[in-house]
Each structure stands twice: as C-alpha cells, then as structure tokens.
C-alpha cells in the first residue's frame, strides 16, 4: 500500500486521517526494523564480526521509513555512507545488508563494497556514496534519464547537513532547477557534520532550507522525527517531481543518537542534548501515535517481535555465510568482467 | 571520401553515434548554441535539438555527475569538459565515482559514458589551459583512456568509446583541431586498445601520442634522410587498454625504444611503456630505452618558452640520432 490517501480506515483510525492504517503500520514496521537491525550491527561490531567502519542512523529512522513508504517501486534512491536505513526502507533484506557489513558472500555486493557502498539495483537503491556530495549530481543524472525517456520515476537523494557546504550541493541544485528534473533532495539535518556542530561552520541557520531560494525553490523545513510529517512532505514532493514540476529540497530536522561512526563516543555534545532528543525518539513517538489511533497493543507487539526474529534469522544466515571468494578480487573492474588494461 | 578537420571530425563522430542510438545524449558548457569553444560541436544542436544536445551551467561536478547518473540508469552520455585542466575540478567523478562503481557494486551498475576534453599545449594558453593530462586518468583502474591524433581516428575511436560499456576519457588535442585528413564516407568504427604503426622502420621504435605523433613522423622522415636511421613510428592512440603487442613486437624487431610524450616527465605514460619493454623484452634490446618529454614544469605562455618546453621534431631528431650513434 503506497499512496494510502484512499487507504482503509478501520480499527479506530480517526475519520480525518489522511494517511491510513496500512501505511502507518508499514512506517512503524520499517522504523522498528531499521532500529533493531542497526542495533544488531553495533553488537556485531563489538564481537568483531563487523569490520571497518559503519555509520548508524539511530534516531533518524522516520525519514528513511517515510520516504521508503511514499516512494514507488521504480523510483531510485541515492544515499550516503549512513545508508543502512535507506537501503532497508526500499525493501532490501536484512541478511543482504548485515552480510555486507560482515563482508560475507551473502552480502549485497558479496563483501566487495562494505558498509559505505550499499547498492541494490533491483530495489532502486542506486548506491551509497562515501564522498560527501558526489551523489547529488548523480541523482540529477538519473532524474535527467527519467525525464528524457519519459520513465516517470523520481530520484530521491539523501544527505546530511554537512553536505550543504560542498560545491556539488550547489551545482546539483542549480542544475536540477534549470533542467526542471524529477529529483527530490532530502537533507537530514542531525545538527552535526562529523564532530563539529553544523552551526559552527555554516553561514545560515538552516543549512539546506535557507539556501533553497537561491535556486528558486520553496523553503521547506520539517520535523524529521515525525514519520507522518515526513510522509506527507514526501508524497507532495514526489508528486510534484512526477508531474514535471521539478525538484524539491527538504530539510528534515533530526538527531543521531550515537556518534558519527563507531569510533566516535560523541563527547562533543552538550549535556542534556541527547536526553532532550531521546524524548522525541521517532520510534517511541510513532508507537504512541499508533496506540492513540486505537491500534491494538498486540498488533504493535507482533511487529516488534517479528522484527527481532528477522534480525536473529539474518544474523544467523550471515554468520553461516562464507567470506567473499578470492575470484572476486579482480572481477568487474571493466565491463568484460575482468581487469585487463592491456591486450 | 572527404577532407575533414579534426574539429569537424569530432562533430561528425558525435552525430554518427547520436543518429544510431537515441540513448546517446550530449552535454557541456557552450556546446549547443555556441557549437563549443573550439567549434568542435557545430551543427549538433541543429540536427538533434535541445533535448539531446544541452548547454549546462559552469558546473563541472554537475556535468560529470549527471552524465554518470544518466549512464548508470540507461543513457549513453557524452560530456564535455572544455579544457582538460578543468578535469581537476570534477576529479572525484573521474577518480572515485565512474571507475569504481562497477567494482564496488559487484557488477550491478555500469557507467557507459564518454568524457571528451580539449587537452594539450602549443597554443600559448599558459599553465592552466595547456596541460596534457592523459596520465592523470591512466593510473586509475576502471577507466579507458583515448587520445587520437587524426580526424579519422577521432571518428572511429569516438564511436568505439560511445559503444563501450566502460567510462572512457577522450582527449582531443587543442593544437590538432585545425589539422586536416582524408576521411571515408559512411559509418566509421574503430577498436579501442589498438595502436597504429604509421611508419614502418627497422632501426628503432618511436612511440608517440596525439600532437607528438605528427612530430614523431616528421622526425622519422628527417632521421632517415639526414642520418640514415630508419625509425618505426607507433601512434598509441589509446593508453587503456594499451596495445602492448604492437609496441613489444616493434621493439623486438628494431631493438631500440624511444617514447615521445607531451606531459611533464614525472610519471608520464612513456615510463610505463619503458617499464613493460624492460620487463618483457629486455634481451631483445640493443641499447637504453629513452623518454623524450616536457621537463617537469608547468607550461609557460610565452611562445618561445612553450616551444622549448614541448618536444619538437628537432629535439626528437637530435635525441634519437645521438643515442643511436652511441653518445
Ligand atoms: C568530500 C569529503 N570530505 C570529507 C569527508 C569525511 N566525512 C565523512 S562524513 C563527514 C561529515 C558529513 O556530515 P553530514 O553531511 O552532516 O552527514 P551525516 O554524517 O551527519 O549524516 C565528513 C566530513 C568525506 N567523506 N568526503
């Protein structure tokens, strides 16, 4: 059930509910599964089963879940190294995601990409980009293709607040605006770039929204911890893009509960800041909203239990998977499948 | 058969591929209405319209990023970076994005695009508009790297590049745009990774690229006339894939290797060729392998300084004859 404006109204849904119970349950399920899966990724790291780095988006789940629900199957998403949530939200299985973090054969790229490069073309997950800002112009290109071929899909590009200070952000927005491309830029403003508060290094209070006017775009700042708000905004931006009315830039206010990456204990945060944001934990808020809507507590518990089971099943599958085979080392450098640079 | 300039060959090559395949689109700064700063894309907008031939803002990252996004989702873009020096402004795409996507995604995505760019010196543009940068991209796994020296090669290699499923960096030489050559009518398609032996010879092998090719040919003629040295001249045409067979075969025959490079000496492509030759046919060599290059300097704008910096036919003749005579 994607656009559920006409969705079922039952089990106590308010008569003026524009979102619908099915859609709400879907957004709740995604938020819970993303949360559980990322927590498991952290546990696996502590067991030295996840190597390298990884960047969790604990606290930012509502944005990925709402967009994942609002987007249609053919739509394309582009995300960053902080892309577990966006990848899961497009329907990629947990074992594929965790398997890639564990660099196992079962992983999305069979271990060749690692946590910062999650890609699943069959789900429209067109890559996670580890160089800040690189994917904004790339999303423009995907949107250009949709416009050129009349494919009708929208490209959605997620990035952080820190990204708004890089040249590619500004190039992409101007480019998308003048070419009227079907692309939606989603800034997840979690208040920090890596370790530095965004306010310390940015000339405007709202790093994305305050610059929208420079590209002829509407100023949009929303509560990124409220999945309903994000969902409604997403539907509007996706419709606008699909209707040929060009790009949108959406700034979602949110907060990451943990450090930038696993190496970061986040000591730079002022006292009390985390606690204040934990009160606005998107998963907690949404759970309460479902109860307020009259959804049975058992139904909510079932979603939560099933999520934990799925994480356990995925973990077991990943642990049983062999590491990437050696033949992959030199595979797929060039289109003929190999790596030969000379005849 | 028609006589075409190198710049006309560029437009003809792009038109040939756009006629054949609706997925081929072309974007860059001033490429459409203005026909390109080097006038190499005149007529394309008129024939294919603004949907397929698009002027962009001065946004090198957006140009290459958009080309990549379009390529990996189904189009086959040709993107222009006006002067090759500007490749540094969008080098993330060249170094990190295009070439690594196929590998990192375990073959899920490919990036079939061509970046064409005005490369090289000799036109008094100074240090930031004259560089020969083909070795910048040569060292990156996942890219193909082309640099034609004649109108017919421009067409054939461009066609091959557009039809290739890998990202290709296509270096057009600014100082060659006005050069003319005979080009047959009809579709022309060449093969990447094939060098051309432009002059057969038995005494030594001279390997050159782009603007250095006509200079090497002139030098070879003079070496034969004035010094009795019969040089074989190879136009590499494509650095990746590299036609090592043609080069090794020639060196085995002649026993001597000279490379003529326009780029500054350090880490130039000639060093790679010398290393391959030393590695694989060392016992066939009759003397040292010698690189003729630009010194390790930025290029000056002043006529006489730029002329001294870039290898000339005089310098090639002088160097080859001296080395061949044992001094
Ligand atoms: C071009 C580039 N510069 C620097 C980095 C190192 N880096 C990785 S994440 C990061 C901070 C990004 O902050 P933001 O865009 O707010 O995203 P968030 O991590 O909050 O999701 C930096 C500086 C990088 N990956 N790429």
UniProtKB/TrEMBL annotation, chain A:
<dbReference type="GO" id="GO:0006086">
    <property type="term" value="P:pyruvate decarboxylation to acetyl-CoA"/>
</dbReference>
<keyword id="KW-0786">Thiamine pyrophosphate</keyword>
<dbReference type="GO" id="GO:0004739">
    <property type="term" value="F:pyruvate dehydrogenase (acetyl-transferring) activity"/>
</dbReference>
<feature type="domain" description="Dehydrogenase E1 component">
    <location>
        <begin position="33"/>
        <end position="323"/>
    </location>
</feature>
<dbReference type="InterPro" id="IPR050642">
    <property type="entry name" value="PDH_E1_Alpha_Subunit"/>
</dbReference>
<dbReference type="InterPro" id="IPR029061">
    <property type="entry name" value="THDP-binding"/>
</dbReference>
<dbReference type="Pfam" id="PF00676">
    <property type="entry name" value="E1_dh"/>
</dbReference>
<keyword id="KW-0560">Oxidoreductase</keyword>
<dbReference type="InterPro" id="IPR001017">
    <property type="entry name" value="DH_E1"/>
</dbReference>
<protein>
    <submittedName>
        <fullName>Thiamine pyrophosphate-dependent dehydrogenase E1 component subunit alpha</fullName>
    </submittedName>
</protein>
Automatic annotation (TrEMBL), chain B:
<dbReference type="InterPro" id="IPR009014">
    <property type="entry name" value="Transketo_C/PFOR_II"/>
</dbReference>
<dbReference type="GO" id="GO:0016491">
    <property type="term" value="F:oxidoreductase activity"/>
</dbReference>
<keyword id="KW-0560">Oxidoreductase</keyword>
<dbReference type="InterPro" id="IPR005475">
    <property type="entry name" value="Transketolase-like_Pyr-bd"/>
</dbReference>
<keyword id="KW-0786">Thiamine pyrophosphate</keyword>
<dbReference type="InterPro" id="IPR029061">
    <property type="entry name" value="THDP-binding"/>
</dbReference>
<protein>
    <submittedName>
        <fullName>Alpha-ketoacid dehydrogenase subunit beta</fullName>
    </submittedName>
</protein>
<dbReference type="Pfam" id="PF02779">
    <property type="entry name" value="Transket_pyr"/>
</dbReference>
<dbReference type="Pfam" id="PF02780">
    <property type="entry name" value="Transketolase_C"/>
</dbReference>
<feature type="domain" description="Transketolase-like pyrimidine-binding">
    <location>
        <begin position="4"/>
        <end position="179"/>
    </location>
</feature>
<dbReference type="InterPro" id="IPR033248">
    <property type="entry name" value="Transketolase_C"/>
</dbReference>
């Amino acid at each position: 059930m994607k656009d559920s404006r006409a969705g079922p109204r039952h089990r106590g849904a308010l008569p003026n509910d524009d979102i619908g119970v099915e859609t709400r349950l879907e957004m709740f399920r995604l938020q819970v599964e993303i949360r559980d899966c990322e927590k498991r990724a952290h546990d696996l790291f502590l067991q030295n089963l996840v190597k390298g780095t990884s960047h969790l988006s604990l606290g930012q789940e509502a944005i990925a879940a709402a967009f994942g629900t609002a987007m249609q199957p053919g739509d394309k998403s582009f995300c960053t190294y902080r892309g577990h949530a966006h990848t899961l939200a497009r329907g990629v299985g947990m074992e594929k995601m965790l398997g890639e973090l564990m660099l196992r054969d079962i992983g999305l790229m069979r271990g060749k990409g690692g946590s910062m490069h999650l890609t699943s073309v069959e789900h429209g997950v067109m890559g996670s980009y580890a160089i800040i800002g690189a994917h904004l112009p790339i999303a423009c290109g995907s949107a250009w293709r949709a416009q050129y071929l009349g494919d009708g899909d929208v490209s959605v590009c997620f990035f952080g607040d820190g990204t708004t200070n890089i040249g590619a952000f500004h190039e992409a927005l101007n480019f998308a605006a003048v070419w009227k491309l079907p692309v939606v830029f989603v800034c997840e403003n979690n208040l920090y770039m890596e370790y530095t508060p965004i306010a310390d290094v940015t000339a405007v209070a709202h790093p994305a929204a305050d610059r929208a006017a420079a590209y002829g775009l509407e100023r949009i700042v929303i509560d990124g911890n409220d999945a309903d708000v994000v969902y409604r905004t997403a539907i509007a931006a996706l419709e606008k893009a699909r209707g040929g009315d060009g790009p949108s830039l959406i700034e979602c206010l949110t907060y990451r509960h943990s450090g930038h990456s696993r190496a970061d204990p986040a000591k730079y945060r002022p006292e009390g800041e985390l606690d204040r944001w934990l009160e606005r934990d998107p998963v907690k808020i949404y759970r309460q909203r479902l109860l307020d809507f009259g959804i049975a507590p058992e139904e909510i518990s079932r979603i939560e239990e099933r999520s934990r089971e799925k994480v356990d099943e995925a973990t077991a599958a990943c642990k049983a998977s062999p590491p990437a085979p050696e033949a992959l080392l030199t595979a797929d450098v060039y289109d003929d499948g190999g790596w030969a640079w000379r005849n | 058969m028609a006589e075409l300039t190198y710049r006309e060959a560029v437009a003809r090559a792009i038109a040939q591929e756009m006629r054949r395949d609706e997925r081929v689109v072309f974007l860059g700064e001033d490429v459409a209405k203005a026909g390109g700063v080097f006038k190499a894309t005149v007529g394309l907008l008129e024939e294919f319209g603004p949907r397929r031939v698009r002027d962009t803002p001065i946004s090198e990252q957006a140009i290459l990023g958009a080309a990549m996004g379009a390529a990996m989702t189904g189009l086959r873009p040709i993107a222009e970076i006006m002067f090759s020096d500007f490749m540094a402004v969008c080098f993330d795409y060249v170094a990190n994005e295009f070439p690594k996507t196929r590998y990192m995604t375990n073959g899920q995505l490919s990036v079939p695009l061509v970046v064409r760019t005005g490369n090289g010196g000799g036109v008094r543009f100074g240090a930031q508009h004259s560089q020969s940068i083909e070795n910048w991209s040569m060292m990156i796994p996942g890219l193909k790297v082309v640099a034609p020296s004649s109108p017919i090669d421009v067409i054939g290699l461009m066609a091959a590049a557009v039809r290739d499923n890998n990202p290709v960096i296509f270096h057009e030489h600014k100082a060659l745009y006005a050069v003319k050559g005979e080009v047959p009518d009809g579709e022309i398609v060449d093969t990447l990774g094939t060098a051309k032996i432009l002059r057969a010879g038995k005494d030594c092998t001279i390997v050159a690229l782009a603007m250095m090719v006509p200079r090497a040919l002139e030098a070879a003629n003079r070496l034969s006339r004035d010094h009795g040295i019969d040089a074989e001249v190879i136009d590499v045409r494509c650095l990746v894939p590299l036609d090592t067979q043609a080069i090794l075969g020639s060196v085995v025959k002649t026993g001597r290797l000279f490379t003529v490079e326009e780029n500054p000496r350090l880490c130039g492509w000639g060093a790679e060729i010398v290393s391959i030759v030393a590695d694989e046919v060392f016992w066939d060599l009759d003397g040292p392998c010698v690189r003729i290059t630009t010194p390790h300097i930025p290029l000056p704008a002043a006529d006489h300084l730029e002329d001294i910096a870039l290898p000339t036919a005089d310098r090639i003749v002088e160097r080859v004859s001296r080395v061949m005579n044992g001094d």
